[in-house]
Amino acid sequence: MDNNGELQAGLRVRTALGVLWKNISNSCQSLIDLVATAVLARLLVPEDFGVVTMSMIFVALAFTINELGLGAALIQRKDPTPGHLDSTFWSAALMGAGLLVTFTLLAPMLASFFRTPALEAVLPVLSLNFMVGSLGLVHRTLLEREMRFRHLARCDVAAAVGFGISSVGLALAGAGVWSIVAGKVIQRAIATGLYWVSYPWRPGFRFSWRHFRELMGFGANVMGDNMAAYLYTNVDYALVGRFLGSTALGLYGMAYRIITLPLQKISIAVMSAVYPAFSRVQDDPPRMVRGYLTTIKHLSIIIMPMLVGLMALAPELVTGIFGEHWRPAVRPLQIMVAAGLAKSIGAPVNSAFRACGRPDVALKVTLAALVLTIGCVAAGIPFGTAGVAAGISVSSVSAFMIAQLVLCRLLRFPMGHIIRSLLPSAWLSAAMLAILLAYRYIGGLYLSVSGLSLAASSIILGLAFYYCALRVGESGLYSELIGLLRSALQDKA
Q1: Among 185-194, 216-225, 303-312, 441-450, which stretch is predicted with the lowest mean pLDDT?
Q2: Residue 380 and residue 236: Cα distance in Å, rounded?
Q3: What is the distance between the alpha carbons of residues 352 and 413, in angstroms, rounded to a whole number?
Q4: For the residues 308-328, what does the mean pLDDT come to?
Q5: 3-class secondary-structure state, position 60
Q6: I need a labelling partner for 59 at 20 to 30 A (CA). Which of 121, 294, 398, 428 fits?
Q7: From CA 126, how far away is CA 164, in angstroms rounded?
Q8: Is the dihedral of CA 293, 221, 406, 393 positive or negative?
Q9: Which residues are CB-contacts of 315 (< 8 A; sequence separation ≥ 6)?
Q10: pLDDT digits 0-9 by tens, 137-176
Q11: Largest pairwise CA distance in the chain
């Protein structure tokens, strides 16, 4: 193998290892989050979750401003200097302090607008995350840039454990909504502290406008795209909270949170791992195309059966895990499966845009998706949470198609390649759905199996069928996945 081939193989293995560690991390975080949420859902009421969800609309939006796109700029830049790092740290810290003050002052007005008095006290406390989170931005970015995802996994899982223990403990003590609020602040503080321990870099007492401007040339578009992406993914929360109330938002938010778990815990993990890899081959478009197609094919083979199975088993899983009072969340959840698929499988497209040095394209695509979402959600509001869920699914699928078509044009490859990459997961998931629905009908009619027992046995049956169908019906893809996993594990060892 020549040197170029060895470099390609090494990058492929490092990327696979990064994806593996990110998915180990997110799987652990998902399990912790699921257990904590299940306990909190039984101790708290939907209105408590609605208040936190309203607050997080503004907190998470501000986080996209807080970073200024500088983290992505540091990863994409081939040769960041100490001046770039110091300037990023101090600008993020200053922005974090400014946002903390701003949202503390705006809290009364926002509470009045959403007709939720509790927001006035909750929002300033959650805003502490701006200051705390900004202090760990450079350390986390350097860990990602050097693809040290094992260290990131340890930090993030430990922080998730901190959230679970603190929030559940406070809820048991009767703290109500403050159990979630305090848990989120504690989680951010633990993560930031561990990033500092994991990476030895320390900021110098200097700030350079020249280095700041060099990064902001790229970072401004990234920040704009992040803001537009955030509005695109949260405008439904704002509209539901404003027009349908905090209880409806709590129910809708729970459904959306469940349906986007693959996006939050798998797709974003993959994006973090492939973005540095894509950036390293930014001057080789054919290689980037191959990497992108492989990424969405592997994502879809994991995520599509998860969401399709969730759609079939939603009534048993939601009421069995969270309690009967969460049953109204089932219908919106089932309707939003299409949105979950589009968002999760389409997520890496922004990594490709940014790696090409075109965050401006990502921004334009996201703005188009935002306009679609506002229109579709507004049309669904009169029909309640189910109508909003339908609007989100229509807009998400449309946005997915737009983004893929733009990427095809940018990198000059046909849309048919993307469709072919998704076909294996599509037919395998459809076949699994047919098996699950047949078993659900037979189990309920003849075997007297229901509730969590039906869900658990269906999951086992679905996993067994999907594995066998993948191994027999898509043997080449199965061998490819196993080979990639073995390479990553051998490199880890």
Answers
A1: 441-450
A2: 10
A3: 14
A4: 88
A5: helix
A6: 398
A7: 16
A8: positive
A9: 327, 330
A10: 899 988 888 878 888 889 999 999 999 999 999 999 988 8
A11: 73
Residue type, 473: G
Token pair for 447: 């075997």
CB 167 within 8 A of CB 180: yes
pLDDT at 6: 45
Virtual torsion, Cα 351, 352, 353, 358, nearest 10 deg:
100
Separation of first and last alpha carbons in the chain: 23
The pTM is what? 0.67
CB 299 within 8 A of CB 270: yes
* CB proximity list for 414: less than 8 A, separation 6 or greater: 408
Instruction: Show Cβ contacts of residue 413 under 8 Å, excluding neighbours closer than 6 positions.
Output: 289
Mean pLDDT throughout 185-199?
94
Q: Of 302, 329, 305, nearest to 315 (Cα)?
A: 329
Amino acid at 246: S
Cα→Cα distances 150→20, 119, 140, 286, 302, Å: 9, 37, 12, 29, 21
Query: Pick from 347, 382, 359, 172: which is nearest to 282 by CA?
Result: 359
Residue 175 backbone phi and psi in degrees, to 5: -75, -10
| Four-CA torsion 437, 439, 444, 447, nearest 10 degrees | 180
CA 191 to chain centre: 17
State the virtual CA torsion across 197, 200, 205, 206 in degrees, nearest 10. -130
What are residue 2's phi and psi, to 5 degrees? -75, 175
d(CA 164, CA 177): 14
pLDDT tens-digit readout, 116-145: 888 889 989 998 988 898 899 899 988 888
What values do phi and psi take at 55, rounded to 5? -60, -40
Instruction: Give me the amino acid identity at 122.
Output: V
- Looking up tokens 């733009």, which residue turns up? 406
* 8 A C-beta contact, residue 175 and residue 122: no
What is the three-state SS of 372-399?
Answer: HHHHHHHHHHHHHHHHHHHHHHHHHHHH
Most confident of 35-49, 100-114, 203-217, 377-391: 377-391
Q: Which amino acid is at 453?
A: S
The set of residues, in sequence order, having a beta carbon less than 8 Å from that of 275 and lying 6+ positions away, is 72, 75, 144, 351, 354, 355
pLDDT tens-digit series, residues 200-251 = 899 988 888 888 888 887 777 777 777 777 777 778 888 888 888 878 888 8
pLDDT reported for residue 16: 64
Q: Which of 375, 401, 399 is nearest to 388 (CA)?
A: 375
Residue 24: what pLDDT? 79
Residue with tokens 């403050």: 178
Classify residue 266 by its DSSP letter.
Answer: I
Cα–Cα distance for residue pair 237/342, rounded to 1 Å: 18
Mean pLDDT for the stretch of residues 21-27: 75
How far apart are alpha carbons 266 and 22 in whole angstroms?
8
